[in-house]
Known about the structure:
The structure is a single chain. By secondary structure, the protein is mostly beta strands. The protein has helices at residues 2-6, 27-34; strands at residues 42-49, 55-62, 68-76, 82-88, 93-100, 107-116, 121-133, 136-142, 146-155, 158-167, 174-183, 186-193, 198-207, 210-218, 225-234, 239-246, 251-260, 263-271, 278-286.
Amino acid sequence: ILVGSLLPSFNPFSAIMAPPQYSKISKSADGLFNDDFGASSNKFTLKSKTANGVDLKIEASRSTGPISGLIETSWTTKNGWKVSEKWTTKNVVTTEVGFNDSLLQNSDVTLSADITPTTHMMNNWSVKSKYNVDKVATNLDIAPKSVGFSSVFSWKNYLFGFKASSPLDFSEFKASVAGSYTTGGLVIATTVADSGDVQGSVFNKCCDNFSAGAKFGWARGNGAVNFGVAGEYKVDENTTLKAKTDENFNLNFSIIQQVSKNVSARVSADIPSNKESSLGFNLTIDA
């Protein structure tokens, strides 16, 4: 009894700190390169919340063609289910229902379906599931024509991941492995596919208001190499500057401004090396 009282109790279903999903192993560098860029379109986003707790999002954007948009509503039911419905100007309604800890503690299952109202036809559906235990995160995704599995394991400052996908008839199998190492503000990540293609990234939060990163890749099939560098500088708590370039000297710049508590704006410029430059404006209002 004395020995048992001195040993720490173990409960696999207690609150845990699980590693990220496979797609987010290089999240820091991906966010630096992908978020808040893009001058190919102008976008307006309005977010609000009704008195009964329903989140509403209206989005409209335009590039060179007609305006495209969406209306999305989401809410949580009394039993904890998360429900969302999204209608786009392509006349497709996507409905998602998420069950957190309903089937098994530390699990998350999301059912999704795309329906065309005019034909009442279901265009697509999927079942996405997550299960986390201490130091391990697992995903299983099933769609009409494919199945995918991924798992990430954390050990000290390291993350190790495996991903596999296949058609439902298992006629083809694709797999990749990934890993990352984190120390302080430095994150080094790499991914190797079964085709031999290699992708890597380095992210470094140099100080409180400046971050820098590099991405590189090599394709085994044709030997093509890609490379890019990016940086983010926070001028103050309301203003952020971002820039990136690649091996072809295509330049991208963005200025993100928090105009007020509920209004943010972004101006982006794309300066390709071999075609005309473009300028885009995004405005988000969170009422």
